[in-house]
Amino acid sequence: MYTLSKDMWKTKTLSKLAVLGVIAFALMLFEFPLVWLAPPFLKLDISDLPALIGSFALGPMAGVIIQFLKNLLFMVIRGTSSAGVGELANFLVGSVFVYTAGAIYFKKKTMNRAVVGLIVGTILMTVVITLANYFFIFPMYAKLFGLSIENLVEMGTSINANIVDLKTMMIYAIVPFNLLKGILESAITILVYKRVSPILHK
């Protein structure tokens, strides 16, 4: 289990975390729905990328801190249209992803471990967010906005006829959405990490 080290609180490290948090926030603004795959309230972005890079370079807890900063900045600057539910989900799923990937890679920094970390992180992220959505996030979202679960399911049914209840919403929308997100961000991380890591190690 990785915790916050003393080095994490050095001014230089805090500055790097802050910069990565701001970049992650900026990337979070460029989000778009995958209307062929999931309901429009699920939007894809690559804002986990700076947190993955930070997790690889500075340790897995750095990735979690970047995720927190990203969502905090989003709520303060842009506000929330989901009563904080969307931001909570984003922080949860992102933290599981970057911490897992970073913990596996940081133990022994090789390309193979980076790939394994990203694969395991993607799978674990998908499992955690699917369970969280089923038992907590979707019910909370529906309650906060005076909707029924059926209302949310109908948004999925309009895209995929196989979505007929909350369970099939998880199987046919949430799972593929998060697998796609993880694969996309993992591929970009592999492509760019070695190019930007020297900056973070200075």
UniProtKB/TrEMBL annotation:
One of its GO terms (molecular function) is riboflavin transmembrane transporter activity. GO terms for cellular component: plasma membrane. Keywords: Cell membrane, Membrane, Transmembrane, Transmembrane helix, Transport. The chain crosses the membrane at residues 17-37, 49-68, 88-106, 115-137, 170-193. It holds the Pfam family ECF_trnsprt. It is a multi-pass membrane protein. It is found in: Cell membrane. Probably a riboflavin-binding protein that interacts with the energy-coupling factor (ECF) ABC-transporter complex. Belongs to the prokaryotic riboflavin transporter (P-RFT) (TC 2.A.87) family. PANTHER family: RIBOFLAVIN TRANSPORTER RIBU. This is Riboflavin transporter. The lineage of its organism: Bacteria, Bacillati, Bacillota, Tissierellia, Tissierellales.
